[in-house]
Structure prediction request, 300 residues.
Amino acid sequence: MWAIRSGAGWEVHAPAKLNLLFEILARREDGYHEIETLMVPISVYDTLYLRRDSNGEIQLTCQWAAAAEAQAGRLGDLPTDRSNLAVKAVELLRARAGIEAGATMRLVKRIPSAAGLGGGSSDAAAALMAANLAWGLHWSVADLSTLAGELGSDVPFFLTPGAAICRGRGERVEPLARAAPLHVVVVRPPAGLSTAEVFRACQVADRPHTTGPLRAALESGNAAQVARLLHNRLQEPAERLSPWVVRVRQAFETLDCLGHQMSGSGTSYFGICRHARHALRVASYLRARALGSVFAARSC
Ligand code: C5P
Prediction:
C-alpha cells in the first residue's frame, strides 16, 4: 500500500491479498479463532482519494472502476454509508485523535467484496493512512495498526508493505524481509460467503501446518515449492457452504497450474502459474468456463 499527493488531498493504492497458508490453531473465548496465515498483496487494487473537509463532514462516494463496471453486479455490493469500513476507519481515527476535522473520500473499486481478498480491510487501512496524512496527525504505523486491529482482523496487514505472516486473530503482523513475485490467476465466483459463517463451520487443526517452509520457499523464489505448500483450513467448510468453490476447484484441477486453493474465507480461488504468459492463458481458459470474474495478477 502506498500514498501519493493528489491535488488538495491524497491518493492511496489499496491492494487485494491472497492467503497462501491459512491455519486455525484454536477457538478463543471472545468468539474469534487463533490463526496463523501467510498473506501476499497482489496487483489488483482499489484507489482511495481523500481530502480534508473543513466543515467536519465525513463523506464517501464509491464506484466500480471502468474495467470492472460491466461486471458490477457480479463483484458484490458497494456500501457508501456508515457500514463501509473506510468510513468507520476515518471516524475512529478522528475520535481517538480528539479532533473535529472531516474528510471527503472517493473510492474506485476493483476488488470484489465477500471474496476472501481483503478488499474492505484494504480500503479501511487506506482510509487510516490517508486521513493520518491529510489531517497532519503523524501517527506511527504501529499506532495506526492498533486502531486497524479494532476495525478488523485483516486491516493491520495492509498498513505494512509486502508479504507477511499474521498471527493472533490475524492482527499481529510479521512482515517478510523479501518475497519473490508470483504469477497468479484469481477467480471470484458469482456468489460470496460470509466470513463469520465459514469460521463457524471450521475445525481446529489436529496437526497444524506451519508457515516456516512456505516462508523459505517464497523468500528463495521457488514458486513450485510455494505451490506444493499451499494450505487453507477454511476451504473444506467453504466447500460445504458454497457449490461455487467446488466448481472452481474442479476447473483448476483440469489445468496445469503449479498449485491452487481458495483465499481466506472465500469464495475467491487462485492458481499459481509458471510465468505471466501462462497466467494469461489460464485466465482466458477460465473466463470461457463462466465461473465468475477472472483476474490475472502478480503478487507484489
Ligand atoms: O475481524 P473481522 O471483523 O474481519 O472478522 C469477521 C468475523 O470472522 C468475526 O466476527 C469472526 O466471526 C470471524 N473470525 C474469527 N477468527 C478470526 C478472524 C475472524 O472467528 N481470527
